[in-house]
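Practice problem 4.
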């Protein structure tokens, strides 16, 4: 039994030595092939050398790095305007469904905030040539008839569906006061407008 065990051990040691010698020869051949491919002046030949079966995975990776170093770097182009940014986002969203979901989630609040900003931004500052009694709506929701002094500046917020003018006036004590003035009265009493 001991004789058999010694024979098996000797065979195992010889096989391991043969495998190690073969591995060493493969590594040497691969390193030589890598050096030969790196020395080539033509980048296309180096690129074709990536398919060479004589290269081991480590040497193939080293050759890939060498070829990648020769390629021009990709320039990162930052969009200069919001329009370019939006076009880039839509182009990305067209090809990636996650991009479409993100674009939708981002655009909803932007549209709502933009709509609120447009609705609450004045169009012009106006003055009236005489005192006017208008019904003003206060920030707390109640309405009250108050006199608007002549030549006091108020902001035109826009027109409603009937063409009546929405006016806004700032009072330090009460905040923003809003009133609606009929279109005919507005055209008759307004004296000066500044954008």
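Answer key:
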């Amino acid at each position: 039994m001991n004789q058999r065990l010694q024979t098996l051990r000797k065979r195992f040691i010889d096989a391991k030595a043969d495998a190690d010698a073969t591995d060493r020869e493969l590594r040497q051949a691969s390193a030589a092939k890598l050096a030969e491919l790196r020395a080539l002046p033509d980048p296309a030949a180096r690129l074709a050398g990536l398919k060479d079966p004589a290269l081991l995975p480590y040497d193939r990776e080293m050759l890939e790095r060498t070829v990648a170093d020769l390629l021009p770097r990709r320039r990162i182009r930052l969009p200069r305007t919001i329009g370019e940014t939006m076009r880039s986002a839509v182009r990305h969203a067209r090809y990636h469904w996650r991009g479409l979901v993100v674009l939708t989630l981002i655009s909803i609040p932007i549209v709502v905030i933009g709509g609120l900003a447009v609705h609450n931004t004045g169009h012009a500052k106006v003055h009236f040539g005489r005192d006017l009694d208008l019904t003003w709506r206060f920030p707390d929701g109640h309405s009250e008839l108050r006199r608007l002094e002549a030549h006091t500046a108020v902001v035109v917020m826009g027109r409603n569906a009937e063409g009546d003018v929405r006016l806004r006036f700032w009072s330090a004590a009460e905040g923003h006061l809003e009133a609606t003035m009929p279109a005919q009265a507005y055209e008759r009493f307004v004296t000066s407008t500044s954008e």
